[in-house]
Amino acid sequence: MSKSAARMQLGFSPLSKTIQLAKMRDVNGGRLRVGNDQGRDVTNEAAQMVWQLVMAEGGEIAWNLDDGSQMVLKAGKVEPKAVCTTEPQGGESCATASPSSSPD
């Protein structure tokens, strides 16, 4: 069995729920980080790129899986909503509340 060469790759960590860019080697259907480099968390950048891809395809993309089911990704943009409160003097004060995370 020959070892695959280590190279910079993206990998998903189910424990930290992050996407890491690090020097990795393909082993037994997965990826194994090699060396002392901790890698770099690229979760936000990767998510924004996937969002842009899905939006460019009309807001939804799908893949057929081996078991006959389908994996579907949907994306959209949520505009901030105005939040209004009544002031003690009888007036109204409004501010824009932005969503917790929204890619541009």
Provide key terms for this protein.
13% helix; two-stranded antiparallel sheet; 1 helix; four-stranded antiparallel β-sheet; 104 residues; mainly beta
Would you give an account of this structure?
The termini are far apart. This protein folds into two domains: 41 residues, no CATH class; 53 residues, no CATH class. Strands 1, 2, 3 and 4 form a four-stranded antiparallel β-sheet that branches. It has a two-stranded antiparallel ribbon with strand order 5-6. The chain is mostly beta strands and 104 residues long. Helices cover 13% and strands 43% of the residues. The mean pLDDT is 85. The chain is elongated and about 75 Å long.
SSE series = EEEEHEEEE
* Approximate strand percentage: 35-45%
Q: Structurally, how many domains make up the residues?
A: 2
Q: In which range does the helix fraction lie?
A: 10-25%
**Shape estimate:** elongated
Q: Give the biggest beta sheet.
A: 4 strands, antiparallel
Number of strands: 8
Structural class designation: mainly beta
- Assembly classification: single chain
Distance between the termini: 46 Å
Compute the average pLDDT. Answer: 85
Radius of gyration: 21 Å
Uncertain spans: none
The helix tally amounts to 1
